[in-house]
Task: inverse folding
């Protein structure tokens, strides 16, 4: 039980804002002063915590405050998106100390993509100046569906050739570090709980606006992964009964009507954007969507109408999930969010609150991620830190 107590103590210190004394720790975690003292010694020896000054002006001896040591351990986070791959080095308190972004190589060759990821990680570590021995591992946020047990990516949209690719093992072999793989939307939710500040507490859904739209779920401070790690698939919530047909046989699903691809196609159909309507690559969708947002911001009313309409549809989907789980907050983020945040936040909060089943009892806050644009990569790194620090019931196994 020694290691479990150790993670309990580390987690309590992490969750405190200004650190904790040994006496406070004993009260919070319910272990004996002797156990607290022994484990604190081990954590100090491992450089995972530091003694950070003394506190107390009442009678008795001032208490030494224990805090996490930011440089005590690091984690690498990688967010594999069909268009862009983002990399971060995170320290033990969840601060980004190094960051990189590359275009995800197309061409349907996963082995080449994994080799590029591995070499970028090498450069990232060298640039960060971080001691390699203090890097606990690599977390990868990937588009779903994923097979958590096998660490494989299973045929996600817009990543041709990625059918049952053994991402975890291949990246471990290429880098020598332990690797964890989780779904992008789940990683985003994990990041929010670790590094999002007030928006990451309690019960919320994380609406992930990427090449696809997914949903991370956090109930009572615990990230919900579901039976296989694939919770949060909201692509077939119907949001527009007259909308475009979906591959599931219905019409107007999230997947057929509100993802960026749908708006880019609509804009092309209306002649606002040039180019083909179908068969676009992830990079073309990203460029097209950025152009559409720019046009709307410059006053093009047709472009603005397409985006405003999509905000209404996304709000309907978020409302269904928020009601099903009775959450206090809807957090928006992901790679496309920065383009649309102002517009969406002027439309979505009213729709969610007007449609709230518990509206007479509590409001639902609608906010932007407190983590920012790198939320997927930060979350992937947090998975590694979580494995090191947090005494969760549902622990992911770090393959070594
Ligand atoms: Zn559908």
Result:
């Amino acid at each position: 039980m020694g290691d479990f107590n150790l993670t309990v103590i580390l987690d309590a210190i992490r969750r405190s804002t200004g650190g904790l004394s040994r006496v406070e720790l004993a009260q919070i975690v319910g272990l004996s002063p002797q156990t607290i003292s022994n484990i604190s010694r081990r954590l100090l020896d491992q450089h995972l915590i530091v003694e950070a000054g003394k506190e107390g002006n009442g009678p008795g001896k001032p208490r030494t405050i224990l805090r996490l040591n930011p440089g005590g351990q690091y984690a690498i986070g990688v967010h594999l998106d069909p268009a862009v791959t983002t990399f971060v080095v995170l320290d033990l308190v969840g601060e980004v100390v190094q960051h990189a972004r590359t275009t995800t190589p197309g061409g349907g060759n996963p082995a080449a993509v994994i080799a590029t990821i591995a070499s970028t990680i090498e450069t990232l570590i060298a640039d960060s100046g971080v001691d390699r021995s203090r890097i606990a591992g690599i977390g990868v946020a990937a588009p779903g569906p994923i097979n958590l047990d096998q660490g494989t990516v299973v045929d996600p949209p817009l990543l041709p050739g990625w059918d049952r690719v053994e991402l975890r093992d291949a990246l471990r072999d290429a880098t020598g570090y332990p690797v964890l793989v989780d779904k992008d939307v789940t990683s985003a939710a994990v990041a929010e709980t670790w590094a999002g500040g007030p928006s990451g507490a309690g019960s919320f859904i994380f609406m992930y606006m990427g090449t696809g739209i997914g949903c991370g779920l956090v109930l009572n401070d615990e990230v919900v992964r579901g039976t296989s790690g694939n919770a949060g698939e909201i692509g077939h919530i119907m949001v527009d009964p007259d909308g475009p047909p979906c591959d599931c046989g219905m019409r107007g699903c999230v997947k057929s009507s509100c993802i960026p691809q749908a708006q880019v196609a609509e804009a092309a159909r209306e002649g606002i954007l040039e180019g083909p309507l179908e068969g676009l690559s992830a990079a073309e969708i990203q460029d097209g969507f950025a152009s559409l947002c720019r046009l709307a911001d410059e006053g093009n009313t047709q472009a603005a109408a397409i985006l405003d309409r999509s905000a209404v549809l996304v709000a309907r989907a978020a409302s269904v999930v928020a009601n099903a789980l009775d959450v206090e907050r809807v957090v928006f983020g992901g790679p496309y969010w920065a383009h649309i945040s102002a517009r969406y936040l002027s439309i979505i909060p009213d729709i969610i609150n007007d449609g709230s089943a518990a509206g007479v009892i509590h409001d639902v806050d609608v906010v932007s991620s407190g983590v920012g644009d790198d939320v997927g990569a930060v979350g992937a790194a947090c998975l590694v830190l979580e494995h090191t620090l947090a005494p969760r019931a549902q622990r992911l196994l770090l393959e070594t």
